[in-house]
Amino acid sequence: AATPAFQDFDAYVAAGGYATLKALRAGEISRDAVQEAVQAAGLRGMGGAGFPAGRKW
Fold first, then answer.
1. What is the Cα–Cα distance from 45 to 28, expressed in whole angstroms?
2. pTM for this structure?
3. How many angstroms separate the CA atoms of 52 and 27, rounded?
4. How many CA atoms lie within 13 A of 5 on its CB side?
5. Is residue 53 a contact partner of residue 45, using CB atoms and an 8 Å limit?
6. 25 lies in a domain?
7. Structural domains counted in the chain
């Protein structure tokens, strides 16, 4: 996926950055839902094994 070229933090937030964190802190979504989203995204660690980030949490 392409990485957006945000100019600054405010632009990132205005484009929806941290929306999931805000929803989690407001009780609108669960911790399990966030973990499932991380697993579904296929994020991997930077170590040599590339361990799935969602399983670490």
1. 27
2. 0.62
3. 26
4. 0
5. yes
6. no
7. 1
- Angle at CA of residue 3, ends 50 and 54, nearest 5°: 35
Helix (H, G, I), strand (E, B) or coil at 17: coil
pLDDT tens, position by position, 3-55: 778 789 998 899 899 999 999 999 999 999 998 888 888 888 777 777 787 77
What lies within 8 Å, CB to CB, of 40 at 6+ separation is 54
Residue keyed to tokens 């399990």: 32
> Is 39 domain-assigned?
yes
Tell me which residue has tokens 């994020």.
43
In the numeric block, which tokens belong to residue 19? 């929306």
